Write the structure tokens for this entry.
Amino acid sequence: MNRPLKFVIAAAGLCAAAVFADQAARWQIDPFARPSATLVIAPNPDSVFRDPVDGKRVHWEALHTFNPAAIVRNGRIYVLYRAEDDSGEMRIGMHTSRLGLAESGDGIHFTRRPEPVLYPDNDSQKDREWPGGCEDPRIVESDDGTYVLTYTQWNRKKTDAAVATSRDLIHWTKHGPALGVSPKYEALSYKSAGIVTRVEGARLIAAKIGGRYWMYWGEGVIRLATSDDLIHWRAVEDGSGEPVAVLAKRAGRFDSSFPETGPPPVLTADGIVVLYNGKNAPDGGDTALGPNAYAAGEALFAADAPATLVARLDQPVFKPELPFEKTGQYAAGDTFAEGLVWFRNRWFLYYGCADSMVGVAIAQPASP
């Protein structure tokens, strides 16, 4: 058994550690503040796209634009966002989702492309993506400049966390489910995958730990997977062959219903900082949040052992406060973090506002 896997198995039963004040000041990515122009991408009913599956012209971003990924390229911030058309039933998950692309020189004012860049097509992934669509992306860059996207495939029956790659953010190659099509994981409905990154200049590049890439994944319970090529992933399992859980719900906290993986985690000198989304329980949760509200939290894992939990905050670092974060498609309140970039010596966090629009918050660290 190799050394990293020993760490993983030994850490499987760890509970969340308390965070000491001096330690928190050192490793946290926060506080996040909303700029004056918090909303950066809103629905556009005039955008039209001819769907390749049924041949119909659709208003592909007419209803909602939310849950964004973000990356820095050539000195500009690019956001891939989930856009829902006006088809289907008027309830969550029953419209078709496609991924749009927008770019910005300042991280706040964006210009978007008129058509989506990733969507259900007549390809090998059609049965996994139609009619629900391509949802909730996270993005990292590899050492050679290839962009690796994890996203949710939704056919209105089950979800899969899938992988796609691109050299220009516009043309994408789909590789199918991240955990492959083995009998054990083929039947599993899973989503939300963030690949561990390192900061290099303004780039967040996929980081190797112990000779492998690592990915935190899951909704309900956060788990781990490893890869040699960023495309094919293997779930980290315990001695019984079950996927190891590294983060679970906590009674009385903002993540009392469950945690869900947020943006790609960041490897720092203090460890791996994992920003994640916590859903508050309707009963027995955080009384400062509404029932079923989503807020963002942070946890720290050991730099050389990604399953070893070092610290976990009891309070969220970002939560629904403004009207557009508490109204819309998800009226319980939602600041769903999925995009994080290092840009001009600040952290830009891109998040979904109540499953309806894209917002941004900015953290200015005391030192780079």
Notes: The CA atoms of residues 49 and 58 lie 5 Å apart. The radius of gyration is 19 Å. The helical segments are 3-11, 21-27, 126-129, 183-186.
